[in-house]
């Protein structure tokens, strides 16, 4: 745990007692603050009390005595309307912050030279965060990984000059962190997302930009217009990363699965992603190039980086290789809950038996039509079945399977008899999971279990 000592002797209001909220309350208490915690869920309030956290109705709080309101990132700060606690805090002149801000204040007070890598972007944040942490660990560094990737930042060990914090940040978390000033700030890419919470794309992009504005060194992917403009405005040290042909200025290039250091003269290939199943696809070329830029900035050699790539296990439910049966490869991409995410998976394979469906998102799968020639057969499940059938009709052969179990059985049998190319059974649903599953993790876990139960399956690497 990282105790939050910068509020010692003061009263802090906290709203939102999920995983990060409870960790924050315990951190504040350990640091000597009085915490008054609140949540709409009575069970969470009870769980906090069981751990010695004071709870109360913040509607009745004496806000003039409160030093700060710590808000969970899932609670609206501005759009579509500020949460009532935000309104109360602002009326009393109380700053509204998040758990990342508490970490930043603690780092500034106790270890300003402690290495802190902060990663954001619309897509690829978690894979890049995990890859950076993996490379640094393989190089012998003491690494603490957390934030939006799943472990609350204040649950991690405290900042220290010989310890690197590698932290994924969502736009919601950045919005609650006014003093964000990482050692290295990473911005991967920007496409429209969470606009219901940020109002419009310029506001969303401006929030993301704050992460690199305050960084001692910025690493920015420049393959979209928003990030190119942010890189152009960057005043301090900057490494540009681009996929494809060389972009503006020297930087790191990822071309055809090769990471190339364009800062050297002449430009030098430093890592080959061919054969690394956890890093398939052009989107992962960018993730690897970003990781290279960060790792070398922190003193990792290109040789050590390349060696670490080969042992990167990837993340569950993100292009996860479950196993092979004969020539058939099974891939769990349950995290792909919209068409934009599924596009990355479809672009990575040539002969696909595609399992898709669930609770549909706006826009459906029409945007994926350029990849339909790669699909040997589609297996439809869940509530989106008829909508997706209408889109695929006349372009891709499909079956209405209803359930994931039926889809896996039919896809496995069909792919086994598919002699055209190298068949892949791909779960990449392009849908939310809530019509049939508790979460995308539950959906991916069930897919993994179904595949592993197939006779003759060999695990990854076997």
Automatic annotation (TrEMBL):
GO cellular component entries: cytoplasm
Gene Ontology annotations of biological process type: cell division; cell wall organization; peptidoglycan biosynthetic process; regulation of cell shape
Binding site residues for ATP: 121-127
Compartments where located: Cytoplasm
Domain Mur ligase central: residue ranges: 119-295
Keyword set includes Cell cycle: yes
Catalytic reactions of this protein: UDP-N-acetyl-alpha-D-muramoyl-L-alanine + D-glutamate + ATP = UDP-N-acetyl-alpha-D-muramoyl-L-alanyl-D-glutamate + ADP + phosphate + H(+)
GO molecular-function terms, A-Z: ATP binding; tetrahydrofolylpolyglutamate synthase activity; UDP-N-acetylmuramoylalanine-D-glutamate ligase activity
Keyword Hydrolase (UniProt): no
Family matches, as InterPro entries: Folylpolyglutamate_synth_CS, Mur-like_cat_sf, Mur_ligase_C, Mur_ligase_C_dom_sf, Mur_ligase_cen, MurD, NAD(P)-bd_dom_sf
Stated role: Cell wall formation. Catalyzes the addition of glutamate to the nucleotide precursor UDP-N-acetylmuramoyl-L-alanine (UMA).
Family: Belongs to the MurCDEF family.
Entry-linked PANTHER family: UDP-N-ACETYLMURAMOYLALANINE--D-GLUTAMATE LIGASE
Name of this protein: UDP-N-acetylmuramoylalanine--D-glutamate ligase
Species assigned in the record: Methylobacterium tarhaniae
């Amino acid at each position: 745990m990282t105790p939050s000592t910068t509020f010692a002797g003061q009263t802090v209001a906290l709203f939102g007692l999920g995983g990060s909220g409870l960790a924050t309350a315990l951190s504040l208490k350990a640091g000597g603050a009085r915490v008054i915690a609140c949540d709409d869920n009575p069970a969470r309030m009870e769980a906090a009390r069981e751990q010695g956290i004071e709870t109360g109705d913040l509607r009745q709080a004496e806000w003039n005595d409160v030093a700060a309101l710590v808000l969970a990132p899932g609670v609206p700060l501005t759009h579509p309307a500020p949460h009532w606690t935000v309104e109360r805090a602002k009326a009393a002149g109380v700053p509204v912050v998040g758990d990342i801000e508490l970490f930043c204040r603690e780092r500034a007070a106790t270890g300003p030279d402690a290495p802190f890598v902060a990663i954001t972007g619309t897509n690829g944040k978690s894979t890049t965060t995990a890859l950076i942490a993996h490379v640094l660990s393989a190089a012998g560094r003491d690494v603490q990984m957390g934030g939006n990737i799943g472990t609350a930042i204040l649950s991690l060990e405290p900042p220290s000059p010989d310890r690197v914090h590698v932290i994924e940040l969502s736009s919601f978390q950045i919005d609650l962190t006014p003093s964000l000033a990482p050692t290295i700030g990473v911005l991967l890419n920007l496409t429209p997302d969470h606009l219901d919470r940020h109002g419009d794309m310029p506001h969303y992009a401006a929030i993301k930009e704050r992460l690199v504005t305050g960084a001692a060194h910025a690493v920015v992917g420049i393959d979209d217009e928003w990030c190119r403009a942010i890189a152009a405005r960057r005043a301090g040290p900057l490494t540009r990363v681009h996929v494809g042909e060389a972009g503006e200025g020297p930087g790191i290039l990822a071309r055809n699965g090769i990471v190339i250091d364009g800062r050297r003269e002449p430009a030098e290939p430093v890592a080959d992603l061919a054969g690394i199943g956890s890093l398939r696809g052009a989107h992962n070329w960018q993730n690897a190039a970003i990781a290279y830029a960060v790792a070398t900035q922190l003193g990792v050699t290109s040789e050590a980086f390349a060696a670490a790539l080969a042992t990167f296990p990837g993340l569950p439910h993100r292009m996860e290789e479950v196993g092979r049966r004969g020539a058939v490869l099974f891939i769990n991409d349950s995290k792909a809950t919209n068409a934009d995410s599924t596009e990355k998976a479809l672009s990575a394979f040539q002969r696909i038996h595609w399992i898709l469906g669930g609770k549909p998102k706006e826009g459906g799968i029409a945007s994926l039509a350029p990849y339909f020639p790669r699909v040997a057969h589609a297996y439809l499940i869940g509530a989106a079945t008829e909508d997706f059938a209408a889109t695929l009709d006349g372009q891709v052969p499909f079956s209405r399977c209803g359930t994931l179990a039926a889809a896996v059985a039919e896809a496995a049998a069909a792919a086994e008899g598919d002699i055209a190319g190298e068949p892949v059974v791909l779960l990449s649903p392009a849908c939310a999971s809530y019509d049939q599953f508790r979460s995308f993790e539950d959906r991916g876990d069930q897919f993994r279990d179904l595949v592993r139960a197939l006779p003759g399956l060999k695990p990854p690497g076997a």
